[in-house]
Protein backbone atom coordinates (compact mmCIF):
# COMPACT_ATOMS: atom_id res chain seq x y z
CA UNK A 1 0.00 0.00 0.00
CA UNK A 2 1.19 3.48 -0.80
CA UNK A 3 -0.89 5.10 1.95
CA UNK A 4 -2.39 3.16 4.85
CA UNK A 5 -4.32 4.78 7.68
CA UNK A 6 -4.85 2.40 10.59
CA UNK A 7 -7.39 3.20 13.31
CA UNK A 8 -6.38 6.86 13.45
CA UNK A 9 -7.85 9.25 15.98
CA UNK A 10 -7.38 13.01 16.24
CA UNK A 11 -8.93 15.37 18.77
CA UNK A 12 -8.93 19.08 19.53
CA UNK A 13 -9.28 19.35 23.29
CA UNK A 14 -12.00 16.90 24.23
CA UNK A 15 -13.65 16.94 20.81
CA UNK A 16 -12.96 13.93 18.64
CA UNK A 17 -12.54 15.13 15.06
CA UNK A 18 -11.21 11.94 13.47
CA UNK A 19 -12.53 8.87 15.24
CA UNK A 20 -10.86 5.55 14.47
CA UNK A 21 -10.43 5.90 10.70
CA UNK A 22 -8.83 3.11 8.67
CA UNK A 23 -8.33 3.24 4.93
CA UNK A 24 -5.72 2.49 2.32
CA UNK A 25 -4.76 3.49 -1.20
CA UNK A 26 -2.79 1.36 -3.64
CA UNK A 27 0.13 2.88 -5.50
CA UNK A 28 -0.99 5.09 -8.37
CA UNK A 29 -4.68 4.98 -7.45
CA UNK A 30 -7.02 7.84 -6.55
CA UNK A 31 -9.09 7.71 -3.36
CA UNK A 32 -11.95 10.21 -3.12
CA UNK A 33 -12.87 11.51 0.36
CA UNK A 34 -16.52 12.51 0.57
CA UNK A 35 -18.62 13.79 3.42
CA UNK A 36 -20.61 16.82 4.54
CA UNK A 37 -18.91 19.99 5.79
CA UNK A 38 -17.23 19.35 9.13
CA UNK A 39 -17.03 15.56 8.67
CA UNK A 40 -13.22 15.53 9.06
CA UNK A 41 -11.89 15.43 5.47
CA UNK A 42 -9.39 18.29 5.83
CA UNK A 43 -8.26 17.04 9.25
CA UNK A 44 -7.61 13.57 7.84
CA UNK A 45 -5.56 14.96 4.92
CA UNK A 46 -3.40 16.92 7.40
CA UNK A 47 -2.86 13.79 9.48
CA UNK A 48 -1.76 11.82 6.40
CA UNK A 49 1.07 14.30 5.69
CA UNK A 50 1.88 14.82 9.40
CA UNK A 51 0.91 18.47 9.39
CA UNK A 52 -1.10 17.27 12.42
CA UNK A 53 -0.10 14.51 14.81
CA UNK A 54 -2.41 11.56 15.38
CA UNK A 55 -3.67 11.06 18.93
CA UNK A 56 -3.69 7.29 18.36
CA UNK A 57 -3.32 4.91 15.44
CA UNK A 58 -0.75 4.89 12.65
CA UNK A 59 -0.37 6.48 9.22
CA UNK A 60 1.97 4.50 6.94
CA UNK A 61 3.64 5.64 3.76
CA UNK A 62 4.98 2.79 1.65
CA UNK A 63 4.77 0.62 4.77
CA UNK A 64 6.68 2.99 7.10
CA UNK A 65 5.10 4.77 10.08
CA UNK A 66 5.21 8.50 9.18
CA UNK A 67 5.96 9.34 12.80
CA UNK A 68 9.36 7.74 12.12
CA UNK A 69 10.05 9.43 8.76
CA UNK A 70 12.03 12.69 8.83
CA UNK A 71 10.23 15.95 7.97
CA UNK A 72 12.50 16.38 4.95
CA UNK A 73 11.71 12.94 3.59
CA UNK A 74 7.98 13.55 4.06
CA UNK A 75 8.24 16.89 2.22
CA UNK A 76 10.10 15.28 -0.69
CA UNK A 77 7.50 12.58 -0.91
CA UNK A 78 4.02 14.03 -0.17
CA UNK A 79 2.45 17.19 -1.58
CA UNK A 80 -0.65 18.80 -0.08
CA UNK A 81 -2.86 21.29 -1.88
CA UNK A 82 -4.86 22.95 0.88
CA UNK A 83 -8.38 24.26 0.53
CA UNK A 84 -7.52 27.84 1.37
CA UNK A 85 -3.88 28.03 0.46
CA UNK A 86 -2.52 31.54 0.79
CA UNK A 87 0.32 33.02 -1.16
CA UNK A 88 2.28 36.24 -0.89
CA UNK A 89 0.68 38.54 -3.46
CA UNK A 90 3.89 40.19 -4.71
CA UNK A 91 5.13 37.11 -6.57
CA UNK A 92 4.76 35.71 -10.06
CA UNK A 93 3.22 32.42 -11.11
CA UNK A 94 6.61 30.79 -11.68
CA UNK A 95 7.86 31.95 -8.25
CA UNK A 96 4.96 30.10 -6.62
CA UNK A 97 5.57 26.93 -8.61
CA UNK A 98 9.31 27.07 -7.86
CA UNK A 99 8.47 26.82 -4.15
CA UNK A 100 7.51 23.22 -4.90
CA UNK A 101 11.23 22.47 -5.43
CA UNK A 102 12.26 23.65 -1.93
CA UNK A 103 12.27 20.20 -0.28
CA UNK A 104 14.57 18.86 -3.02
CA UNK A 105 17.24 21.52 -2.64
CA UNK A 106 19.97 21.66 -0.04
CA UNK A 107 20.69 24.97 1.72
CA UNK A 108 23.67 25.68 -0.57
CA UNK A 109 22.73 23.91 -3.77
CA UNK A 110 21.96 26.12 -6.74
CA UNK A 111 18.98 25.90 -9.01
CA UNK A 112 19.41 22.97 -11.41
CA UNK A 113 18.25 22.03 -14.89
CA UNK A 114 16.19 19.35 -13.19
CA UNK A 115 14.42 21.96 -11.03
CA UNK A 116 13.62 24.01 -14.16
CA UNK A 117 12.28 20.95 -15.96
CA UNK A 118 10.02 20.01 -13.02
CA UNK A 119 8.62 23.57 -12.83
CA UNK A 120 7.97 23.82 -16.57
CA UNK A 121 6.38 20.38 -16.66
CA UNK A 122 4.09 21.28 -13.74
CA UNK A 123 3.03 24.58 -15.33
CA UNK A 124 2.34 22.83 -18.63
CA UNK A 125 0.27 20.09 -17.00
CA UNK A 126 -2.15 22.64 -15.53
CA UNK A 127 -2.17 24.74 -18.72
CA UNK A 128 -0.46 27.77 -17.13
CA UNK A 129 2.87 27.70 -19.02
CA UNK A 130 2.06 30.95 -20.84
CA UNK A 131 1.38 32.74 -17.54
CA UNK A 132 4.74 32.10 -15.85
CA UNK A 133 5.54 35.82 -15.49
CA UNK A 134 2.07 36.98 -14.44
CA UNK A 135 1.63 38.44 -10.94
CA UNK A 136 -0.22 36.20 -8.51
CA UNK A 137 -2.56 39.00 -7.45
CA UNK A 138 -3.86 39.38 -11.01
CA UNK A 139 -4.98 35.74 -11.32
CA UNK A 140 -8.60 34.57 -11.07
CA UNK A 141 -9.60 32.15 -8.29
CA UNK A 142 -9.51 29.21 -10.69
CA UNK A 143 -6.09 30.16 -12.05
CA UNK A 144 -4.72 30.43 -8.50
CA UNK A 145 -6.04 26.98 -7.79
CA UNK A 146 -4.29 25.60 -10.88
CA UNK A 147 -1.02 27.28 -9.87
CA UNK A 148 -1.24 25.73 -6.40
CA UNK A 149 -1.69 22.35 -8.04
CA UNK A 150 1.33 23.08 -10.26
CA UNK A 151 3.39 23.89 -7.15
CA UNK A 152 2.42 20.48 -5.73
CA UNK A 153 3.32 18.73 -9.02
CA UNK A 154 6.69 20.53 -9.16
CA UNK A 155 7.42 18.82 -5.87
CA UNK A 156 7.32 15.53 -7.94
CA UNK A 157 5.55 13.73 -5.09
CA UNK A 158 4.77 10.04 -4.96
CA UNK A 159 1.68 10.88 -2.89
CA UNK A 160 -0.56 13.85 -3.61
CA UNK A 161 -3.26 15.11 -1.24
CA UNK A 162 -5.81 17.60 -2.52
CA UNK A 163 -8.45 19.37 -0.46
CA UNK A 164 -11.40 20.28 -2.68
CA UNK A 165 -9.16 21.06 -5.68
CA UNK A 166 -12.06 21.83 -8.01
CA UNK A 167 -13.43 24.73 -5.91
CA UNK A 168 -13.47 27.94 -7.97
CA UNK A 169 -12.89 26.05 -11.22
CA UNK A 170 -15.27 26.16 -14.20
CA UNK A 171 -16.54 22.78 -15.36
CA UNK A 172 -13.94 22.41 -18.11
CA UNK A 173 -11.09 22.97 -15.67
CA UNK A 174 -12.73 20.71 -13.06
CA UNK A 175 -12.70 17.91 -15.64
CA UNK A 176 -9.16 18.78 -16.77
CA UNK A 177 -7.70 18.81 -13.25
CA UNK A 178 -9.38 15.59 -12.11
CA UNK A 179 -8.51 13.94 -15.43
CA UNK A 180 -4.88 14.98 -14.93
CA UNK A 181 -4.80 13.67 -11.34
CA UNK A 182 -6.33 10.35 -12.33
CA UNK A 183 -3.71 9.87 -15.10
CA UNK A 184 -0.67 10.78 -12.97
CA UNK A 185 1.55 7.97 -11.78
CA UNK A 186 1.01 9.28 -8.25
CA UNK A 187 -1.11 7.99 -5.38
CA UNK A 188 -3.76 10.59 -4.63
CA UNK A 189 -6.30 11.33 -1.92
CA UNK A 190 -8.80 13.97 -3.00
CA UNK A 191 -11.50 15.57 -0.86
CA UNK A 192 -14.43 16.36 -3.14
CA UNK A 193 -18.00 17.59 -2.84
CA UNK A 194 -19.24 16.65 -6.29
CA UNK A 195 -20.41 13.04 -6.14
CA UNK A 196 -20.55 12.68 -9.92
CA UNK A 197 -17.00 13.91 -10.39
CA UNK A 198 -15.91 11.56 -7.59
CA UNK A 199 -17.64 8.65 -9.34
CA UNK A 200 -16.02 9.58 -12.67
CA UNK A 201 -12.41 10.01 -11.56
CA UNK A 202 -11.78 8.14 -8.29
CA UNK A 203 -10.80 4.46 -8.20
CA UNK A 204 -12.30 4.15 -4.73
CA UNK A 205 -14.25 6.33 -2.32
CA UNK A 206 -14.50 6.73 1.44
CA UNK A 207 -17.43 8.62 2.93
CA UNK A 208 -16.87 10.40 6.25
CA UNK A 209 -19.52 11.42 8.72
CA UNK A 210 -18.70 12.93 12.10
CA UNK A 211 -15.08 11.79 11.85
CA UNK A 212 -15.86 8.17 10.97
CA UNK A 213 -15.82 6.22 7.71
CA UNK A 214 -19.42 5.21 7.04
CA UNK A 215 -18.87 3.66 3.59
CA UNK A 216 -15.86 2.65 1.49
CA UNK A 217 -15.35 0.85 -1.80
CA UNK A 218 -15.80 1.44 -5.51
CA UNK A 219 -17.96 4.42 -6.54
CA UNK A 220 -20.76 2.05 -7.51
CA UNK A 221 -20.62 0.22 -4.17
CA UNK A 222 -20.49 3.41 -2.10
CA UNK A 223 -22.82 5.83 -3.84
CA UNK A 224 -26.17 4.18 -3.25
CA UNK A 225 -29.46 6.03 -3.08
CA UNK A 226 -29.71 5.04 0.59
CA UNK A 227 -26.25 6.39 1.51
CA UNK A 228 -26.73 9.68 -0.33
CA UNK A 229 -30.01 10.24 1.51
CA UNK A 230 -28.66 9.18 4.91
CA UNK A 231 -25.35 11.08 4.82
CA UNK A 232 -26.10 14.07 2.62
CA UNK A 233 -29.85 14.37 3.23
CA UNK A 234 -30.60 14.42 -0.50
CA UNK A 235 -32.83 12.15 -2.57
CA UNK A 236 -31.11 10.89 -5.68
CA UNK A 237 -31.43 8.37 -8.45
CA UNK A 238 -28.26 6.36 -9.10
CA UNK A 239 -27.61 4.79 -12.49
CA UNK A 240 -24.98 2.19 -13.24
CA UNK A 241 -22.36 3.58 -15.58
CA UNK A 242 -21.13 1.76 -18.66
CA UNK A 243 -17.67 1.95 -17.03
CA UNK A 244 -17.10 -0.89 -14.54
CA UNK A 245 -17.52 0.14 -10.88
CA UNK A 246 -18.67 3.67 -11.70
CA UNK A 247 -22.11 5.32 -11.63
CA UNK A 248 -24.07 8.49 -12.41
CA UNK A 249 -26.17 10.39 -9.89
CA UNK A 250 -29.24 12.41 -10.63
CA UNK A 251 -30.51 14.55 -7.75
CA UNK A 252 -34.20 14.96 -7.08
CA UNK A 253 -35.55 18.31 -5.96
CA UNK A 254 -37.43 18.68 -2.66
N1 LIG B 1 -7.87 22.66 15.47
C1 LIG B 1 -9.20 22.51 15.65
N2 LIG B 1 -9.79 22.90 16.80
C2 LIG B 1 -11.11 22.73 17.00
N3 LIG B 1 -11.93 22.17 16.10
C3 LIG B 1 -11.42 21.79 14.94
C4 LIG B 1 -10.04 21.94 14.64
N4 LIG B 1 -9.80 21.44 13.40
C5 LIG B 1 -11.02 21.03 12.95
N5 LIG B 1 -11.98 21.23 13.86
C6 LIG B 1 -13.40 20.84 13.73
O1 LIG B 1 -13.41 19.50 13.30
C7 LIG B 1 -14.49 19.26 12.41
C8 LIG B 1 -13.97 18.68 11.12
O2 LIG B 1 -13.33 19.70 10.38
P1 LIG B 1 -12.68 19.47 8.96
O3 LIG B 1 -11.66 18.41 9.06
O4 LIG B 1 -12.24 20.80 8.46
O5 LIG B 1 -13.93 18.94 8.12
P2 LIG B 1 -14.24 18.99 6.54
O6 LIG B 1 -12.96 19.23 5.83
O7 LIG B 1 -14.85 17.66 6.26
O8 LIG B 1 -15.24 20.09 6.33
C9 LIG B 1 -15.21 20.59 12.26
O9 LIG B 1 -16.32 20.59 13.13
C10 LIG B 1 -14.16 21.60 12.67
O10 LIG B 1 -14.76 22.75 13.20
MG1 LIG C 1 -12.43 20.72 4.55
TrEMBL record:
Family classification: Belongs to the ABC transporter superfamily.
PANTHER family: ABC TRANSPORTER ATP-BINDING PROTEIN (PTHR42794:SF2), HEMIN IMPORT ATP-BINDING PROTEIN HMUV (PTHR42794)
Highest taxon above the source species: Bacteria
CDD domains for this protein: ABC_Iron-Siderophores_B12_Hemin
Protein name, as recorded: Iron complex transport system ATP-binding protein
Lineage of the organism: Bacteria, Pseudomonadati, Pseudomonadota, Alphaproteobacteria, Hyphomicrobiales
Residue ranges of domain ABC transporter in the record: 3-235
PROSITE patterns, per database record: ABC_TRANSPORTER_2
Pfam family, one: ABC_tran
GO molecular function terms listed in the Swiss-Prot or TrEMBL record: ATP binding; ATP hydrolysis activity
Xref: InterPro entries: AAA+_ATPase, ABC_transporter-like_ATP-bd, P-loop_NTPase
UniProt keyword annotations, A-Z: ATP-binding, Nucleotide-binding, Transport
